[in-house]
Structures are given as structure tokens and as C-alpha cells.
Write a structure and sequence with these properties.
One of its GO terms (molecular function) is metal ion binding. By secondary structure, the protein is mostly helical. It is built from 13 helices and four strands. The protein binds fe (ii) ion (2 copies).
């Protein structure tokens, strides 16, 4: 999973992500910390030995009525036959090494040299996007944690044999190859400041994420459906652009990751489809709830120790390059509305009908807002990114 949405395009979500520069505080032990908008909670001397660089303060928990947990228990067999079948056996899966120079081969150095020659032709703004995507993938521990917050489907033991738990672990294992491959490619490319990137990953995993899924698998599977499609689109675009820059091997890397994301999207949208079938009212309410809150991106708490608005800056570059844009956000929403046939659901409650209307008319409204924002938008400034040794990239 991955991704972001341009802060230029939407009225920004209340709370969470971006702290104003003034909210950055130096703790008594000299650890640089940036709080969320709830700055009053943190002062110069918190008395805490360590705090995450980004803190999320308002969080709703366990909003799904407990009796609905039974729905997920009853779907165990269905998940085994319909979801676990979407996993590939490990022996048939690709591995990062399939796309990288083999360090045990005689030709290793020559292959690395060729990789670096190709990377030289690629502009800095592309690398900012690729690093942001890699950092997002590398925060995978957070996403497995997120799935295991969901009531009724969590892995209760760490090695549970329920279908839901088997899926979550195998999904994580497949996803783990994404960050691994991009990380090794970027390391070999010689184009990026690996230490700054590694710090960003450490900060991000330390901060976590706030998808606002409230321990509810209804909200959780809407969120993952959206996110897997978002990452499919984003990695697909970095593949296309790598090809345009003449790097077919990098295009193959990004395209291969995109194909995994597509398969994961199929799984999560299938789960949500089943929930629409069993509980249309509850599922359409969950869909509308997630869209009202806006889908926050998994790496929204990103920080590199320097730039307090790193995520917004990275998102702005991705938007300008067309790697992931506000239009993609609207397109994903529209795709999901169609995928789940939301317009033709009948027999809904009054609230359910309102939710149905909301999600079915939202995409055009987002696009209109986006067009107006684009018309008003001036060219962004060029700002330094620590990931590329403080070279400046236009937002
Ligand atoms: Fe994914
Ligand atoms: Fe991924």
C-alpha cells in the first residue's frame, strides 16, 4: 500500500498530518519533535524520554457494534475460498533479486555501472516521487499493525490459522518485497541520500498512521481497497515515466510492484463487495464515513528530521509530475462506486440512502473543486529535499 493526495486539492482534513512550523519543539533530551495541531499537549519539557515525531490526538476506537464481529467469523470459509486463492505461492512469486544485479556474479560491478548510467538520465523530481513511494512501502510494520487493529479479523496470536490472519500475514509478506526492491534499487542508483531516507523510514514507523478506521473491518476494508488501487496507480505511473526516461529495467521494477498492488486491490474490493451483499446498509454507511473523513495516505506522518511539511511537499511533486493526483483520488472513488454497484443498491434505510447519494455524487464534486484549485494555483516554489542532498525541486 502507499500514497498520498495533494494538500493543494482538498480542504485539508482536520487534525492529524501537517503541523505548522511553529509546533516543532526541542525536547529536554534534544530529540527534535514536531507535534500535530494539538500543540498545547506538548511543551518544551514533556518529561517524556522519547516521543514520536508526529502525534495523533483524536482517535475513535471500536465503533463497530460488537455483534457484527459474528459476520466476520461466519465469513471464514468464504475468505478461504475467495481471498486466500488470490495469494501466489512463494515459489511462484517474484523476488527483489530477480530485478537486481547479482552480487555473487562476475558481472556484478558492470551491471551496477549500467544501472547507475541509466539512473543518471532520470530527473530529481522523479527520484523524490520514487523515494516517497519507497519510504511508504518501507513503513510496512505500521500497515500490518493497522490490519491487526480490526475487530473480528485480527491475527490473535501472531500465527493464527483463521483465514483473515493467514491473509494478513501473507499479504504483508508479499508487500515486504516492494520496499525491499525499491530500497536496493535506490541504494545502487547512487542518486539519493540513503541516510536521510533511512531516517525518514525510522521516523515514519515510529509515528505510525491514523487511517481513522476505528477498529472496524468495514472501514478498514474500504480503506485498503482505496489504498491498494492508489498504489497500483502510483507505481504504474512511475513505471511509465521510467520508460519515458529510457530506463526499462526501472520501469519493469515499478510495473511488477504495480501488478501486485492490483491483485491486492482485487482481494480487498472482493471483501467489501461481500460486505455490501451481506450488510448493504452498514457497508454503504462505512464507505460514506471514510470518504467524508477523506482517505488519509499511509505515510501522512512522514518526517525526515528537517522538513516539517515533508509529506505535503512530496505530495505536491507527485501531483505536478502526475504520479498521483487529486484527479486519481476522484477516479478511484468513482471506480469503487462502480465496482460495488453502489448506485443500484436497494432497500436501504434513510441514513443508508443519504450515504449512497453522498458517495455516488462525490467524485464530480471533487473534480470541480480540483479544477477550481488548479485554475487558482500558481507555480509552486522550488524547495530542497534532504533525500537528494538538498537539491531543489519545484513543487
Ligand atoms: Fe499494497
Ligand atoms: Fe506495496
Amino acid at each position: 500500500m502507499a500514497l498520498r493526495i495533494s494538500p493543494l486539492s482538498f480542504p485539508s482534513q482536520k487534525c492529524v498530518c501537517a503541523p505548522p512550523a511553529s509546533s516543532v519543539a526541542r525536547s529536554h533530551r534534544g530529540i527534535f519533535m514536531a507535534s500535530t495541531l494539538h500543540t498545547s499537549a506538548k511543551t518544551e519539557n514533556t518529561g517524556k524520554p522519547f516521543s514520536p515525531p508526529r502525534e495523533v490526538h483524536v482517535q475513535v476506537t471500536h465503533s463497530m457494534p460488537p455483534q457484527k464481529i459474528e459476520i466476520f467469523k461466519s465469513l471464514e470459509g468464504w475468505a478461504e475460498n475467495n481471498i486466500l486463492t488470490l495469494l501466489k505461492p512463494v515459489e511462484k512469486n517474484w523476488q527483489p533479486q530477480d530485478f537486481l544485479p547479482d552480487p555473487s556474479s562476475e558481472g556484478f560491478q558492470e551491471e551496477v555501472k549500467e544501472l547507475r548510467e541509466r539512473a543518471k538520465e532520470i530527473p530529481d523530481d522523479y527520484f523524490v516521487c520514487l523515494v516517497g513511494d519507497m519510504v511508504t512501502e518501507e513503513a510496512l510494520p505500521t500497515y500490518q499493525t493497522m490490519l491487526n487493529t480490526l475487530d473480528g479479523v485480527r491475527d490473535e496470536t501472531g500465527a493464527s490459522l483463521t483465514s483473515w490472519a493467514i491473509w494478513t500475514r501473507a499479504w504483508t509478506a508479499e508487500e515486504n518485497r516492494h520496499g525491499d526492491l525499491l530500497n536496493k534499487y535506490l541504494y545502487l542508483s547512487g542518486r539519493v541520500d540513503m541516510r536521510q531516507i533511512e531516517k525518514t523510514i525510522q521516523y515514519l514507523i515510529g509515528s505510525g498512521m491514523d487511517p481513522r478506521t476505528e477498529n472496524s473491518p468495514y472501514l478498514g476494508f474500504i480503506y485498503t481497497s482505496f489504498q491498494e488501487r492508489a498504489t497500483f496507480i502510483s507505481h504504474g505511473n512511475t513505471a511509465r515515466q521510467a520508460k519515458e526516461h529510457g530506463d526499462l529495467k526501472l520501469a519493469q521494477i515499478c510495473g511488477t510492484i504495480a501488478a501486485d498492488e492490483k491483485r491486492h486491490e482485487t482481494a480487498y474490493t472482493k471483501i467489501a463487495e461481500k460486505l455490501f451483499e451481506i450488510d448493504p446498509d452498514g457497508t454503504v454507511l462505512a464507505f460514506a464515513d471514510m470518504m467524508r473523513k477523506k482517505i488519509s495516505m499511509p505515510a501522512h506522518l512522514m518526517y525526515d528530521g528537517r522538513d516539517d511539511n515533508l509529506f505535503e511537499h512530496f505530495s505536491a511533486v507527485a501531483q505536478r509530475l502526475g504520479v498521483y493526483t487529486a484527479r486519481d483520488y476522484a477516479d478511484i472513488l468513482e471506480f469503487l462506486v462502480g465496482r460495488w454497484n453502489v448506485e443500484s443498491i436497494t432497500g436501504l434505510s434513510g441514513e443508508g440512502k443519504k450515504a449512497q447519494d453522498f458517495v455516488c455524487t462525490l467524485a464530480p464534486r471533487i473534480r470541480r473543486l480540483e479544477e477550481r484549485a488548479q485554475a487558482r494555483a500558481k507555480q509552486g516554489p522550488a524547495i530542497p529535499f534532504s533525500w537528494i542532498y538538498d537539491r531543489k525541486v519545484q513543487l
